[in-house]
Amino acid sequence: MILGFSRSWSVSSYLLAGLVVLPLVAIIVQAMVPDEAIFSHLFNTVLPTYISNTVLLMLWVCIGALIVAVPAAWLVARCHFRGRSVFQWALLLPLAMPAYVVAYVYTDLLDYAGPVQRVLRGFFGWQSPQDYYFPEVRSLGGASVMLALVLFPYIYLLARTAFMEQSSSLQHASRVMGCGPWRSFWRLSLPMARPALAVGASLVAMETVADFATVSYFAVPTLTTAVYDTWLGYGSLAAAAKLSAIMLLVVFSMIGFERFARRKQKLFQKQTEINRADLYELKGIKGALATAYCGLLLTFSFLLPFIILLQYAINYFDQSWHSQFLQYSWNSFYIAAIVSVLTVALGLLLMFVRRCSPRKQDLLPSRLASTGYALPGTVLAIGILVPLTYADFAINDIYAYFDQRGPGLILSGSVFALIAAFCIRFSAIAIGSIENSYKRVSPSLDMAAITMGMKPRMLMWRVHLPLLRKGVFAGLLLVFIECMKELPAALLLRPVGFENLATYVFQFVSDEQLEHGALAAIVIVLVGLIPLIYLNRSLEQH
User: Fold this and answer.
1) By C-alpha distance, which of 433, 463, 462, 443 is closest to 356?
2) Is 112 within 8 Å of 129 (Cβ atoms)?
3) Taking the CB of residue 41, how many other CB atoms lie within 10 A of it?
4) What are the tens digits of pLDDT across the range 215-226?
5) pLDDT band at residue 43, thresholds of 50, 70 and 90?
6) Helix, strand, coil fractions of the chain, as percent rounded to 5
7) To the nearest 10°, the Cα dihedral for 316, 322, 327, 332?
8) Which of 45, 167, 506, 509 is deepest in the core (most CB within 10 A)?
9) Of 234, 254, 216, 242, whose CA–CA distance to 382 is shortest?
10) What's the pTM?
11) What are phi and psi of 124, to 5 degrees?
């Protein structure tokens, strides 16, 4: 906190936060526009199905992710068994795998014509689908399983950290009182980890609501697909905005419920380091079961889809490696790089103002700027398109006033819209990474620098920035990979004729030809592994 901190910094932070919040305001305003009875038609016919499917999908994905993630997190954090050191970081790998790619791979494996059902029919002598029952893959349940397999690392990461930070003295006390590993987990570790589990489940729920590709591929109608179909199918931006407002209500209700549920929970003991003696030794059948559980989870969520993708990429390399693939790769990389730099710069400015300003109201901009991550890609696309279209019309009207030919849709019809959407959606990631690094910078350094006559700008450049380099680098990496994977906003906001790796892969997935897009999918996955490895190393160091 610096007395006399210039108000120009605060004004700049509010202006930038206002730009980030602008799409949210645009959605609310657009939702109030009449829509020629299209929304009423949807409300009376299919909207209840959209809402029920969305709620059920969130519920099943969260339950499935919790069921598979929590045992794995506790085993890795509090037990010692063969392979533990590998599973500790390897169970984060599914985050690098796009959910729609996993969905295609398992559909190809488990469908009626797939190898699994062919083997079953050959082994048991079944001749037709009427001879046996096999769960339908392209269903609400199938989509729930696919999303849970990809999203469970959110819960696993937070739960593992929570279990590792629990005081060993409490674990020792439970052992003295006769509690074995199972009772200790159920009665002590799990209740203490509830705040972390609630945060992880809310992240999974938000990602589930935002998913478009998986539910579209499985033909499961949700609010996300409804927004897409209403906008492009019915041509009604107002009706799509109304559906988007309903989605926002669902998302912010989840966030509010999660914070309300854990408002009185506090953690007073924190473990800084776990010794080998603090871990439960799992040997024999127990150790084998622990290794098998984590191994099967890793295999089904990452290794099996990745191996099949790799096989596709090798077999179809000649057809996949061409100039268009290189162009689409370049499109993904340069947009992700621009967005990474812009979001980190935004995070640095907002967190610097939050740290140095003596005014309490200056805490607000960084919080407002973090709301973008809660906006699903399809919703954000509408929020971006509305103000940019108005801005384009205003620019062209000015040109027309001076009898000049206007430049056209230079904002809403160019990659500017895509970059703006990505910046708004992922600025929260950069802000969170920098905020976490700022917690390790002592305020006494600020006081010493100001005492020596250093201005705020030089304080940020010469003192804070060198100390924040790890957080800045982590923010750059995390935003970069999220931009590489983001699909809904890219589908709706890309200029005519523009493709990146995500839209390129989804095009082949939709056409049931992932084999031709496997090389691009491999690139997305491999790029996604870099920040995951860096993140795991950072957690191990702290």
Assistant:
1) 443
2) yes
3) 14
4) 999 989 998 888
5) confident
6) 80, 0, 20
7) 10
8) 506
9) 242
10) 0.85
11) -95, -5
